[in-house]
Amino acid sequence: EPINKKFHIGLSLCTTSDIWKKTNLELIQNELRFYPDMQLTIKDANGNCEEQEKHINEFLNEGMDLLIISPNIVNSIKPSINKAYSLGIPIILIDRKVIGVKYTSYVGGDNYKIGYDAGNYASLLLNGKGNIIEIKGVKGSSPTIERSKGFRDAISICPDINIVLSEFGNWQSNGAELVMQKVIRENLKFDLIFAHNDLMAQEAYRFLKKSGLNNKCQIIGVDGLPGPGGGIQSVIDGQLKATFYYPPQIEEVIRIAYKILHKLPYDKENFIDAVLIDLSKAEVLKSQNMQVERLQERIDKQKIALDIEISKYETQRLILIFALVS
Ligand code: FRU
């Protein structure tokens, strides 16, 4: 392997439209600064499986050394993944899975556990009795399947808890709005909403507030992002009863990509733990996150200062070489 070889990595994302995926994208740039020999090209399929299949094939034609893929649903993009695998191109799946394909490594949250913990927490909030609305993600995406299954398994021990409506909100606020319209149209009685992400949970809250029903219902979301618009703030504001911190996974993926490309040992399955955030944890997380942001700013400033010194050194080195040869 020649010294200074640049590794070309293709990152195929099923979507970048939501704040969780956007946060992942921002973090990539930061993380890549530590790996100057890796170069990343990003393609966004906007939730379209055929488009994602096309992107992966394009990456193969472009001769990528490794692929990072966040698939849309479990039954998509199989031919292109199989082709990549048979060509010996390492594949890291991130966040969502594809069923029945071979891959090099997976990085994601334990979505069954998120659903299970959400179900336990819901049972606790309801004291073992009540009606639940479930607003799911995209049909067929692995976090939707696993969060839903975990949730049902946990509440199944409470015979007086019923899921009165379970619909796909497609991970988006307008999807959640449609589900809530149906709830009102059908005049359903409900005590709690479990939304598969915070975006939909926040929309459910807005909808209930608009309809004057927000005091009658507790809402649980998933993602738990810090910062304005994130789920942690919604818990602090009392809009959500709880969320789950579903950590952005891209930094871990970049680290694993590095190990694979440099033939270092790595784990095939990498589950990043997700934790329940209720009001008591939300305040602590918010202040810790502000501290992390301040540290990040200082690191950024030091990096700029270091870059200036390096370029001064380079100039002086060139002047010296020039003086020596002339
Ligand atoms: C973003 C997102 C997150 C969710 C994850 C599951 O696209 O919807 O909100 O936790 O995907 O894949």
Bound molecules: beta-D-fructofuranose
Judged by helices, strands and strand pairing, the structural class is: alpha/beta
Shape: globular
* Poorly predicted regions: none
Average pLDDT rating? 93
First-to-last CA distance: 35 Å
Beta-strand portion reads 15-25%
Order of SSEs: EHEHEHEEHEHEHEHEHEHEEH
Please give a structural write-up.
The protein has helices at residues 19-32, 49-61, 78-86, 111-125, 142-155, 173-185, 198-210, 231-236, 250-261, 279-325; strands spanning 7-13, 38-44, 66-70, 91-94, 105-109, 130-136, 161-168, 192-195, 218-220, 243-245, 269-272, 275-277. The protein has a six-stranded parallel beta sheet with strand order 2-1-3-4-5-11, with helices on both faces. The chain has a four-stranded parallel beta sheet with strand order 7-6-8-9, sandwiched between helices. The protein has a two-stranded antiparallel ribbon with strand order 10-12. 48% of the residues lie in helices and 18% in strands. The model has no long low-confidence stretch (mean pLDDT 93). The longest helix has 47 residues, at 279-325. It is an alpha/beta fold and 326 residues long. Bound molecules: beta-D-fructofuranose.
